[in-house]
Design brief:
Elements: H1 3-13, H2 18-25, H3 29-38, H4 44-54, H5 58-61, E1 72-73, H6 77-90, E2 94-99, E3 105-109, E4 112-113, E5 119-120, E6 123-127, H7 132-137, E7 143-147, H8 150-157, H9 163-168, E8 176-177, H10 180-191, H11 195-211, H12 218-235, H13 244-251
Parallel strand pairs: 1-6, 2-7
Antiparallel strand pairs: 2-3, 3-6, 4-5, 7-8
Helix pairs in contact: 2-3, 11-12
């Protein structure tokens, strides 16, 4: 079996038994056994069930990703707003704001049922700066807040914890409802943590682009800022640790 897939499956299962997990998803016993024995993926319909019910990426199921769970990471408050707004316009979601990571984690969840009668909890997870525009989207809606230990919050923010951790365990059972003013307090408190690092990264990128006469598109620049920022956060780098050499080397692979 692909060693990375074996590790991914363990992260997905958490403390669940593989036989019951497969049965709940409707995966045939033989297919479920092969999945955990030699990494043979089940039929597409079961892959879809896994992806939707666990918030897992297809890349992860093919063993091509370090983190199995999907997190939309943003680098500015407008990007967070643009991600959240259409979701709230399309359907009703339960809303949780989780603090403890480098920026607020916003989790949208709902209940769904597929054509086979399989019931699951689809979620959207976004981590990044948020401001009054996003807070205003939540006016009139029930919003719950939970502060997590830093290590758990960071694992959630970087895709190492998923749907089961949030809703299959007791993680959010003691979340408390927050009003608009409290939401703004949470957003302000989290926003100050890494502002200097982000500012430093953007400045070095612009300086390096000018020096190297780079023709990076606006979208590629945004990707580079995001990659560097979250690399710095995960490695514990401060604003003074970001070098032009690091930026230049990452520009070459964008």
């Amino acid at each position: 079996m692909n060693i990375n897939l074996s590790r991914i499956l363990k992260l997905i299962l958490d403390d669940r038994k593989q036989t019951k997990w497969g049965k709940d998803l409707g995966i045939p016993i033989s297919s479920n056994s092969r999945l955990f024995k030699d990494g043979t993926l089940p039929a597409d319909k079961y892959l879809t069930k896994i992806m939707h019910s666990e918030n897992v990426s297809l890349n992860a199921l093919f063993g091509n990703s370090d983190a199995p769970f999907i997190v939309h990471r943003t680098i500015d408050s407008s990007e967070t707003f643009q991600f959240i707004k259409p979701h709230l316009e399309d359907e009703a979601w339960d809303i949780h704001i989780i603090s403890g990571a480098e920026y607020p984690i916003i989790v949208l969840s709902t209940l769904a049922e597929d054509g086979d009668g399989f019931k699951y909890t689809p979620i959207e997870v976004v981590c990044g700066p948020a401001d009054i525009a996003t807070a205003n989207l939540f006016k009139g809606l029930k919003v719950m807040h939970k502060a997590l230990p830093k290590d758990e919050a960071n694992e959630l923010a970087t895709g190492y914890k998923g749907t089961y951790y949030l809703f299959g365990k007791t993680t959010l059972l003691d979340a408390v409802e927050v009003n608009h003013s409290e939401i703004m307090d949470i957003f302000r408190r989290e926003a100050t943590k890494n502002a200097q690092t982000l500012k430093r990264i953007m400045q070095i990128i612009d300086d390096t682009m000018a020096e190297e006469k780079s023709n990076l598109s606006a979208e590629d620049r945004r990707k580079l800022v995001s990659e560097l920022y979250f690399y710095a956060v995960e490695e514990g780098l401060g604003s003074g640790d970001i070098s032009e050499n690091l930026v230049s080397s990452m520009m070459r692979v964008i």
